[in-house]
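FW: tagging you since you asked about this chain on Friday. Here's the raw sequence from the shared folder, copied in full. Didn't touch anything.
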Amino acid sequence: MVLYPLSAFRAMNKAAENVYTAIRRDGTQQQVVDTMQTRMELYEAIGYHVFEQKLDALFARDKG
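HL: got it, structure written out here
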């Protein structure tokens, strides 16, 4: 098995650099939005809605 522990990190940094370069150059991220992850894609990747439901259930239990 071969691991490349910094490959994804370096790819993320390059993507961030491209976005910030565009924002600085253009004053907006409009030209790079198509290369960005959508909010829903992010939420799906991190399991946001499952976590949110769990928090809601815990707080409802504590209130009741």
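FW: The mean pLDDT is 93.
HL: agreed, and The longest helix spans residues 7-26.
FW: great, closing this out.
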